[in-house]
Amino acid sequence: MDIVLDLFDTFLLDRFYATLLPRTLTAGNVIQDATSTFSSMRELPTAVHPSNLFWNVEPSQYALMSAWPRDNIWRQTLSLYLITWLFGLVVYFICATLSYLFIFDHATFTHPKYLKNQVWQEIKQASYALPLMAIFTVPFFVGEVQGYAKLYDAPADAPFWLYNALQFPLFICFTDFFIYWIHRGLHHPRVYKTLHKPHHKWIMPTPYASHAFHPLDGFAQSVPYHVFPFIFPLNKIAYIVLFAFINIWTVFIHDGEYVANSSIINGAACHTMHHLYFNYNYGQFTTIWDRFGGSYRKPNEELFRRESKMSKQEWERQCKEMETVQKEVEGDDDRSYGDEATRLQKKVL
């Protein structure tokens, strides 16, 4: 996160803090230089150090003009909160919108379990969740830029050379394992209705449902991502690549385009089984832990053929089973489907 903070400081936040909290100079006051991060050095800074060894962004003219220097922990906390919230919201809208426009199957609008004004509801829920999630997430990011994580710069700094490649599958395996159990725990009757049901409101999700959940639900499932670099070494560039991948993948498994008919990959079809039938396919990236935990459900073959995927017969079968499971898990269904889906379904079919 130090690279991201360094870029935001240089191009936006240095000027913001210089304007908001300008540094007052006196005859005996000498401006101390600052750095955005201690992740590569634990001693006090003597210059505006780059956050990595791959490129050096020239500090802005405002870098030393604030009473809050770059290494001030309160400034870092506020900056990282704003970045996590606002930049996270931008990334969410970009990824979800691109998927919605170019990948998502809009025939889903005609599904009987598609809610009235669902896209708007999903966006509203995500917009509510992200700023609150950021509050819980920021301490991890502050710990990273303060140097407590095991982030490293150059490939030569890895424990051994092959680790530069192994860190990627290690990250996937570590996070997939813990997210499986966290996600499955969120389906426990004592917490499901309060924390996880808001995300299961979407029986037939769109890409905008990817981040539409209760803030504590979303944070809980993100914890393994943030814990990983405090336990295992992780290259700073790999860190950014992996977090970009996470956001894209989260949208991908909600896009309703069933490409991956794999027994290992937990793609959109597997995750659709989870939204339809609740108690299956808790995994994030793979089906491995669902198989070990007895919660794997193979996606229906009909989902991979467009003529049957959107057929009235398939939808009726889905709805019948979904309503039975939903009654067992939630009790009375308080969703508002309205007449829109039914009307559109008759028009199309």
Mean pLDDT: 88
Shape: globular
Over the alpha carbons, how many angstroms does the gyration radius reach?
23 Å
User: Total number of helical segments?
Assistant: 12
Give the termini separation: 50 Å
Percent range of helical residues: 55-70%
Strand residues, percent: under 5%
Classify the oligomer. single chain
Which structural class is indicated by helix and strand composition? mainly alpha
> Order of SSEs, N→C?
HHHEHHHEHHHHHH
How many beta-strand elements? 2
Fold and architecture overview:
Residues 30-34, 38-46 and 343-349 have low confidence and may be disordered. The chain contains twelve helices and two strands. Helix 1 packs across helix 2 (73-102) and helix 2 (73-102) crosses helix 7. The chain is an all-alpha fold and 349 residues long. The chain has helices at residues 2-20, 73-102, 118-145, 163-186, 189-200, 215-231, 236-252, 268-277, 288-293, 306-309, 312-330, 340-348, and strands at residues 151-152, 234-235. The protein is globular and about 75 Å long.
Explain the layout of strands and helices.
Elements: H1 2-20, H2 73-102, H3 118-145, E1 151-152, H4 163-186, H5 189-200, H6 215-231, E2 234-235, H7 236-252, H8 268-277, H9 288-293, H10 306-309, H11 312-330, H12 340-348
Parallel strand pairs: 1-2
Index terms:
single chain; 349 residues; mainly alpha; two-stranded parallel ribbon; 2 strands
Summarize the structure.
The chain has 349 residues and is mainly alpha-helical.
